[in-house]
């Protein structure tokens, strides 16, 4: 039986943005899928047309949503997440719901202190209005270029925006921003879990939304666990690294790492 793989998208991208990865992982012998977040439409167009369905979903809602999906699988899946999907993958791994996890440019978890200015600017479309906590917020093409497409051409960034971008709930960003002041924050991850599966943290060196400093600080949060925690940097890549023209290189690094874990 093929090992299941669940791809988890982050804010502002539709689950179908994982389609090239799914094809590649199927060719490699896995059983991949990319379920959307609660409230997501089946397509990019449906998600854009019904942003109210996406609004008000927080981190705990998303974790519960994927937990139900995982509980319906024949075995624990490999979890691969991007941005907030990377945080969700780490939470699920810490709960022993995954055989392994790959967190790509993952949103900051509780305990991570650096908040670089570029990350604040990327989140400004949400944070500029406190009411956005309970709303779905869309990015303009210019905002998408800063947050995602700054390491690719303006033309490619625009194409990615038009193809994959959808509204995103503001609530997860507010939850992450206040995590270090909330002892019960949903952004808390069981980083001390000694029995969890292996974890790979991937960062893009030019990422504005989740700068390398955030990923390195996340890595330090796992220092008290003997479980495998690895790190890989793509120095010239930004937040679009899972969907832009260089996606395959990231996917192949992921596949090679899984092979080294005998998964």
From TrEMBL:
TM segment ranges: none
InterPro entries, alphabetized: AB_hydrolase_1, AB_hydrolase_fold, Carboxylesterase_BioH
Domain of life: Bacteria
Keyword vocabulary terms for this entry: Hydrolase
AB hydrolase-1 domain ranges (all copies): 5-252
Pfam families reported for this sequence: Abhydrolase_6
Entry's Gene Ontology molecular function annotations: hydrolase activity
PANTHER family attached to this UniProt entry: HYDROLASE ALPHA/BETA FOLD FAMILY (PTHR43194), PIMELOYL-[ACYL-CARRIER PROTEIN] METHYL ESTER ESTERASE (PTHR43194:SF5)
Protein's recorded name: Alpha/beta hydrolase
Organismal lineage: Bacteria, Bacillati, Actinomycetota, Actinomycetes, Streptosporangiales
